[in-house]
Design a protein that fits this description.
Blueprint (H helix, E strand, L loop, with lengths): L21 H6 L4 E5 L2 E4 L4 E4 L2 H4 L8 H13 L11 H13 L10 E5 L2 H18 L7 E5 L8 H6 L3 H4 L7 E4 L5 H4 L15 H9 L4 E6 L15 H11 L3 E5 L13 H5 L5 E4 L11 E5 L1 H9 L17 H16 L2 H17 L7 E7 L2 E6 L8 H12 L2 E2 L1 E3 L2 E4 L7 H18 L1
Parallel strand pairs: 3-13, 5-6, 5-7, 7-8, 8-9
Antiparallel strand pairs: 1-2, 2-3, 4-10, 9-10, 11-12, 12-15, 14-15
This protein binds 4'-deoxy-4'-aminopyridoxal-5'-phosphate.
The site of 4'-deoxy-4'-aminopyridoxal-5'-phosphate has 14 residues, from helix 5.
Amino acid sequence: MDHTSRPNMPPLDNFWMPFTANRQFKAAPRLLAAADGMYYTDVDGNQILDGTAGLWCVNAGHGRRKIAAAVERQLATMDFAPTFQMGHPIAFEFAAKLGQFAPGEGAATLDRLFFTGSGSESVDTALKIAIAYQRAIGQGTRTRIIGREKGYHGVGFGGISVGGLVNNRRVFPQIPADHMRHTLDIERNGFSRGLPAHGLELAEDLERLVALHGAETIAAVIVEPMSGSAGVILPPKGYLERLRAIADAHGILLIFDEVITGFGRLGTPFAADYFGVIPDMMTTAKGITNGTIPMGAVFASRKVHDGLMHGPGNQIELFHGYTYSGHPVACAAGLATMEIYQEENLLARAGDLAADWEEALHGLKGHPHVADIRNLGLVGAIELTPRPGAPGARAYDVFVDCFHKGLLVRVTGDIIALSPPLIIEKEQIATIVSTIADALKRAA
Ligand code: PMP
């Protein structure tokens, strides 16, 4: 079928789509044209329930007038101003506002903000801060970063080096890094509700890497407190606490990549709050502006910030930044977003809904090909047994089928991932589950 002859279909050749099998997609394009609340409308006029908050980012739901008005106001007042050796009030205001949400106490308070344009930039920034901090405090041999197998930390050279998804890494050079083991262990943990009981011993892999490389070569360890992009892998009970203890024992900074978990996904402002484990830095993006204007931020502790600024080994503070660090329009969108989160108590809402969400998702147990179901906060994953000889094909079919039945889910390998906007209602949770149940039956 020639899709360009479909009404409302633009020319498809020029846009080189990210993380997409371009040829397959362009043969059968799915284009979203409008969005409001919990729903998208596609170019053919169909309503599609957003089961993924866009790409884990539209936490307050679509089409928020307050954000649109703030953006419009800011564009009319001052469209752009640099933050290199210059400043503008709204960037400082937004940093101060974010600082109010920051976990930690005293020197561990994570309220020193470095602005970026995306999650990938936040990750690369945090890794550079870690290395620069170690050098500033007289630990200049610490340049290696430890990540995890299956970790996703964006697509910058830093992010892919510490990331553990092979397709993202295999053809590109990397910075010095190594990876802790990290497995799903469906045999022991299958169909766990919330955090899995088994696997705490995986944290000891950090000790193994310290013994292998020497603590004096390691600047930081970075993990997603709940890994999203690899298919929702939850930390075993006690795991993050143990990583914190090992990192402390060896002078290694702990970085939580909260690009997905930040801003209410687990029912607390950050996963750090949910787990009660305070890292030295958090990387964020996505929900920081409700997905509206591209932006990210690194939350650094006062210890890291002050150590870097005043440490004996520091010569140049931090030689790093982006044209769009603290972009005034993004800051305006972010301030309006934080107001919405507060006014509607949205950062706690995932916690209020978590029990219903868990119950509904686990109702899919026993459906054809369901190998595991995982949930935490307002995140879910349904893992399917692969079709023999065609890994990923079964989940992809379910994804396409759901789309045609009016539900957007995300698929990675044979895992269907869910992360709806935090404004979701219980009836919409039921719709998500029944639509997936029907698609699973058809796929069988
Ligand atoms: N880190 C994590 C944990 C992510 O989930 C993502 C994006 N899904 C990123 C980093 C990269 O963010 P971005 O796509 O905005 O660069």
